[in-house]
Design goal:
single chain; 557 residues; Flavocytochrome B2, Chain A, domain 1; 25 helices; globular
Length: 557
């Protein structure tokens, strides 16, 4: 079955076919790429591999009512063209039961651990978390949150009889129960109410012109970038090499905020213009691929904090923020690469809260590697109208290594000692940016509550904001409003503080938790999470130690 033409839709030549959930499921089982938007059934088979945002984001939406995700990520012009892919409509007399996309049906996880099964079949022990907390579309009633970190529950287990799978299952189940207890019910009536209120909020933001970019703000930004770069050049000429390195690091730190804006098309809202701005900043000025960032960041926004799908938290064995990593997970983003839980993880994760800041200090070097790996992949060149970005990025990144590697490091610095020190200092100065990026997610839930959870609830459950006075916004670069940004990714960052007040009202109306902490408290929360996972690993090691000891004794006797 092929999409009807746009002209057919306009003339109304034929009435649309009505698809049942079973028919959509059958098409997906046959490998068709079917997504639901505003009641329309979109067939994206011939276009998904050319999607400028990458095919993965479409694969995560198969069988889903992706209306909210599509509307907030695309311009009005793009949304109008989507009718060309419609092959019919769903039965809108009842709410759509979203299907779990094939890419999220992990064969590595036992059936009883699949979140959708865990949630739809309520046991008496978790009834308080699963029960409906709204009898009518109103503010969700709050149930008591299950107290204590999971490590306190695990300590009550018998380390001699607890297997790795049982250990991980208990830890994951505890996180799910906490989320179910503190968030609104997953029943359709409640989630439908949240979606309705979220769409009303989206319309309000559009009517209040929050999507309009005020370019005077970027004039101020450019002045700051220019001063930092001038400081870098002046001190370099004066041979204050380490001071020059600090200025260059600060320049990188500040200008990347605008690359983030351009990556979300939040500056001009024009794909070509914003892509060129982003590529100039990220690739030419900073040596990082905007295409790689968009590829991973788009997936991160759709499935935030999911251990198997979100590349932003797939950092094992250096860092682990979820007990799911204990069983070794297969990454859907990295093409099925398995993050094995090995001896290195056993050693490094228990001390990860101490390694967190040193790792963030050198994280930029890993981004260079990921950027080049992305640009060398074959499918990077097949992204439809974004096809031209790959050769442009390669050219701009080569220019970066020419001016930074040859002109600066080789020609301007007189010794290898100074060259090494300059690289280390300039790159380590950017580490607050990496802290800022991870701060809003590392401490939040990594549980998956299934395909029927609304877009707004998932974003707020896995993301937190960082409180700061308005005069410090330039330091955080808008990334302190991560929860607001995840709800409305194309809103220019200079408008996010205004949108924040509207989001708080939305959360009060729907019973959703809006979490916002100060920078210090946020860091404390992240370290607490890393320490909690580390304690779980210590217990897991004790369990496996008993198993090994018993096996040895069994062999002896």
């Amino acid at each position: 079955m092929e999409p009807s033409s746009c002209s057919d839709d306009k003339r109304g030549i034929r009435s649309p076919k009505i698809f049942t959930e079973a028919e959509v499921q059958k098409m997906i089982n046959e490998g068709r790429k079917v997504v639901i938007k505003d009641g329309q059934v979109l067939l994206l088979d011939k276009w998904s591999h050319r999607h400028p945002g990458g095919e993965l984001v479409i694969l995560h939406m198969l069988g889903r009512d992706a209306t909210d995700e599509i509307n907030v990520y695309h311009s009005a012009e793009t949304l109008k063209r989507m009718g060309c892919f419609a092959i019919g409509r769903i039965d809108e007399s009842k709410p759509w039961q979203s299907i779990l996309p094939p890419i999220q049906q992990s064969p590595g996880i036992p059936t009883q651990l699949m979140p959708s099964a865990c949630i739809t079949t309520c046991t008496e022990s978790s009834r308080n978390g699963c029960r409906s907390r709204v009898s009518t579309p109103a503010v969700a009633e709050k149930a008591p949150v299950i107290p204590g970190p999971v490590s306190t529950i695990l300590e009550g287990l018998d380390a001699k009889t607890t297997s790795r799978d049982e250990f991980t299952r208990i830890a994951e189940k505890h996180e799910i129960e906490i989320d179910l207890a503190k968030m609104p019910s997953l029943e359709q009536a409640t989630q439908q109410y949240i979606m309705t209120r979220y769409r009303a909020l989206h319309e309000k933001i559009k009517t209040q012109n929050m999507y309009d970019c005020h370019y005077i703000n970027y004039l101020k930004e450019c002045c700051r970038y220019g001063l930092l770069f001038a400081g870098f050049l002046y001190t370099l000429k004066a041979e204050w090499f380490m001071t020059s390195a600090v200025f260059l690091g600060l320049f990188w730190h500040q200008i990347m905020f605008s690359a983030h804006d351009a990556g979300h098309l939040a500056i001009s809202h024009n794909f070509v213009i914003d892509s060129l701005i982003g590529i100039f900043i990220a690739d030419f000025c900073c040596g990082l691929s905007l295409g790689w960032w968009k590829s991973s960041h788009n997936v991160h926004h759709l499935v935030p904090n999911h251990p198997e799908h979100d590349p932003d938290i797939q950092n094992a064995p250096l860092l682990a923020t979820s007990p799911s990593f204990f069983r070794s997970i297969k990454s859907t983003y990295y093409g099925g690469f398995v993050f094995f839980w090995d001896k290195a993880a056993d050693i490094l994760v228990p001390i990860q809260k101490y390694n967190y800041y040193p790792i963030m200090a050198i994280a930029r070097f890993n981004l260079y590697l990921l950027s080049w790996i992305h640009l060398m992949r074959k499918n990077t060149s097949s992204l439809g109208k974004a096809r031209w970005t790959r050769p442009t990025e390669i050219a701009f990144m080569c220019c970066y290594w020419y001016w930074f590697g040859y002109c600066l490091l080789w020609c301007c610095l007189p010794s290898w000692t100074l060259r090494i020190m300059f690289v280390l200092v300039s790159h380590m100065v950017t580490f607050p940016l990496h802290i800022q990026i991870t701060l809003s997610h590392f401490a939040m839930s990594t549980a998956d509550l299934g395909p029927n959870e609304s877009f707004a609830q998932k974003q707020l459950r896995t993301t937190m904001d960082v409180e700061c006075p308005a005069w410090l916004d330039w330091i955080h670069g808008g990334l302190q409003f991560q929860a607001v940004h995840h709800l409305f990714p194309r809103v220019p960052r200079h408008n996010l503080r205004q949108v924040q007040s509207l989001v708080k009202v939305f959360c009060e109306e729907t019973g959703l938790e809006y979490k916002s902490l100060g920078f210090v408290d946020g860091n404390r929360e992240v370290l607490g999470r890393l320490g909690e996972i580390g304690r779980q690993v210590e217990f897991l090691r004790r369990c496996e130690g008993y198993v090994r000891e018993n096996n040895v004794l069994h062999e002896v006797y």
